[in-house]
Write a structure and sequence with these properties.
Blueprint: H1 8-12, E1 22-23, E2 32-33, E3 39-40, E4 43-44, H2 47-51, E5 60-62, E6 82-84, E7 105-107, E8 128-130, E9 151-153, H3 161-167, H4 172-182, E10 196-198, E11 210-217, H5 234-237, H6 239-253, E12 257-264, H7 265-278, E13 281-287, H8 296-299, E14 303-310, E15 314-323, H9 324-331, H10 336-342, E16 348-356, E17 378-385, H11 393-418, E18 427-432, H12 440-447, E19 449-451, E20 477-479, E21 485-486, E22 497-498, E23 503-504, E24 507-511, E25 516-522, H13 527-532, E26 550-556
Parallel strand pairs: 1-4, 5-6, 6-7, 7-8, 8-9, 11-12, 17-18
Antiparallel strand pairs: 2-3, 10-25, 11-26, 12-14, 13-14, 15-16, 16-17, 18-24, 19-20, 21-24, 22-23, 25-26
Helix pairs in contact: 9-11, 11-12
InterPro entries: CCR4/nocturin_mRNA_transcr, Endo/exonu/phosph_ase_sf, Endo/exonuclease/phosphatase, Leu-rich_rpt, Leu-rich_rpt_typical-subtyp, LRR_dom_sf, LRR_R13L4/SHOC2-like
Organism: Caenorhabditis brenneri
GO cellular component, one term: cytoplasm
Length: about 600
């Protein structure tokens, strides 16, 4: 970032600013390179162009002439990208200037301005701000929100000693903005509590086994950088601050099963396992594959996935770690696509086979018919963090196929051990899939299949190695045998990830509807709070991660009450039930209202 030393373009011109637009004779394109690096592209129309009725369009405006007050009509010119108000006699800047939301360049130099409106901090499109040669002593902390600023010139102002000292340091302009952002008083109240949305009720006259599950990407410390989240104060990105809010949020919901992503190895041991053990949980953890190649100290900072469960409701029978790159290589080591695109991404999945205990029944005084008793039965819980890069949608699909294949393999073991069919085993697959509801990943998981010609497969469309990941005999279809239903859709949860550059649903809880009946979900984050407080993105001092947790409650359907699930819908058909479900809504169960 430049501290904005004034160029000769600004110093030498009597009127200051960028100078008058060029005539066509001076430059036919109207392009004028200013000495500050900006390109002026406006020029004056010729008489011939005016006579021919050529329309004009301008996005830059200069106002000169020792102006003391600005007309309110100026704030209606919201199309402006550059505004030159330098070399006037302005003593104040109206707060309405924030209505010019498209400004990237604002020159207020050589005026008599004594203070700046806090609303200036809402003009987040600003890249160049010239405030030099005014009468500013202090700056509003809100200026720290201008995270796109490349040039900030404060020279020639009677700045307070504290601000002047920082400004005169190397890279002082950037340090000033960080200082202001870090000292910005957060006047916003915490967001309202999220409501619980009931979908159907369990019959209180019958003993029903129920539990809740939470899925949450907690944003590990090494990814929470000022460069990545420049709109968030650095103190609110600090792990020591965020971890308290994260644990507080987990404690608030107190789900029976918790699945977490982006948990650093050391933080699992020192924070999450310790804190949750005190709350009655046990847990397992697996880091990304790269941890195997690192020393003890480096390994501490590798992130991975974790699963926790309340020990009064579940015991763990067995657990599995799915290293997607290793598994994919074992299945298709001869594929160049697998070697070049899948193998370098070391995402993992984690699976726990839990054994259900008596406390899943809220009213244990009721007698439970032997055929309806689910105590001692298995519950398979999986979590995964799929690769993030949008350019690698094919890798996301292959990782998701690997996950579905490995879960199917686990179900083969579980069904033999517990002497039930694979379809009767209740399954949860939770995680950050880094994929929107219109993606190939979501279609594949929720519909049970995807066409071989899907655009998200990219060069894998011609790669025969994918047949090894499919349960279908039709080579034009890639499928898996699971029947999965997403707990949330866009009508109920419009986003699970909210940053400056991206807002959308990418976290999911999938469940097998023939064995798990969805009773309710945690409602959406309050959109009004976000809008009214002009929240640019998460993390935020009140929101510790760039993701929000999602949560659902399920009733465990006894095997005697389960219905045989229909085959998945053909790719391209409209799904019934919630978004992406590949089958009609499950039939009504006698023990549910």
């Amino acid at each position: 970032m430049s501290s904005g030393d004034m160029s000769s373009e600004y110093k030498e011109k009597p009127c200051g600013g960028a100078g008058q637009p060029l005539t066509k004779s001076e430059n036919s394109d109207g392009k004028k390179l200013l000495s500050n690096g900006m390109l002026r592209v406006h020029r004056v129309l010729t008489d011939e162009e005016i006579n021919n009725g050529r329309p004009t369009w301008w996005t830059e405006l200069e106002i000169h002439g020792k102006v003391k007050n600005l007309s309110p009509a100026l704030w209606q010119l919201t199309h402006l990208s550059c505004l030159f108000l330098n070399n006037n006699n302005l003593q104040r800047l109206p707060p309405e200037i924030s209505q010019l939301s498209n400004l990237t360049m604002l020159d207020l130099s050589h005026n008599k301005i004594r203070s700046l409106p806090t609303e200036l901090g809402d003009m987040i499109s600003l890249c160049h701000l010239y405030l030099n040669n005014n009468q500013l002593r202090v700056l509003p902390y809100e200026l720290g929100k201008l995270f796109r600023i490349q040039t900030l010139n404060l020279a020639g102002n009677p700045l307070s000693p504290e601000i002047a000292k920082i400004y005169n340091e190397p890279n002082g302009a950037q340090k000033i903005l960080q200082f202001l952002l870090d000292h910005l008083t957060i006047n916003t109240h915490p967001p309202p509590e999220r409501n619980w949305v009931m979908i159907r009720h369990a019959d209180p006259e019958r003993p029903i086994a129920t539990f809740t599950v939470l899925c949450y990407n907690v944003l590990c410390d090494k990814y929470a950088t000022v460069n990545q989240y420049s709109y968030c104060p650095s103190w609110a990105l600090n792990w020591e601050y965020r971890k308290t809010l994260i644990i507080k949020e987990i404690r608030t919901y107190e789900a029976d099963v918790i699945t977490l992503q982006e948990v650093e190895t050391e933080q699992y041991r020192a924070l999450f396992y310790t804190e949750l053990k005190n709350l009655g949980y046990n847990g397992i953890f697996a880091p990304k594959t790269r941890a195997k190649t690192m020393g003890d100290e480096e390994r501490k900072y590798v992130d991975g996935c974790a699963i926790f469960w309340k020990t009064d409701k579940f015991d763990m029978d067995k657990h599995h770690v799915f290293e997607f790159s290793t598994i994919a290589m074992a299945k298709a080591s001869g594929s160049e696509n697998i070697i070049n695109r899948v193998m370098p991404r070391d995402n993992i999945g984690l699976c726990a086979v839990l054994k259900i205990k008596e406390n899943v029944y809220a009213n244990r005084r009721m007698s439970i018919p032997a055929n309806d008793n689910v105590v001692g039965n298995p519950l398979v819980v999986c979590t995964a963090h799929i690769h993030w890069d949008p350019e690698f949608c094919d890798v996301k699909l292959v990782q998701s196929m690997t996950l579905a294949n490995e879960v199917t393999r686990v179900l083969e073991e579980v069904s033999k051990k517990y002497m039930i069919t694979q379809q009767q085993v209740p399954v949860l697959i939770c995680g950050d899939f880094n994929s929107l509801p219109d993606s190939g990943v979501f279609e594949y998981l929720s519909k049970g299949q995807i066409t071989r010609r899907h655009m998200d497969l990219k060069t894998f469309r011609e790669d025969t190695c994918l047949e090894k990941f499919s349960s279908s005999t039709d080579k034009n279809i890639l499928s898996h045998p699971l029947r999965l239903d997403s707990a949330c859709d866009l009508t109920s949860i419009p986003f699970t990830n909210y940053t400056l550059d991206f807002k959308g649903m990418i976290d999911y809880i999938f469940a097998t509807p023939q064995s798990l009946a969805r009773l309710g979900i945690l409602g959406p984050f309050d959109a009004q709070w976000v809008q009214s407080n002009k929240i640019l993105g998460f993390p935020h001092p009140h929101v510790p991660s760039d993701h929000i947790p999602i949560m659902a409650q399920y009733a465990i359907i006894p095997t005697t009450h389960q219905r045989q699930p229909p085959p998945p819908q053909q790719t391209g058909q409209t799904a019934a039930g919630v978004i992406g479900s590949g089958y009609p809504t499950p039939p009504h169960h006698s023990f549910l209202r």
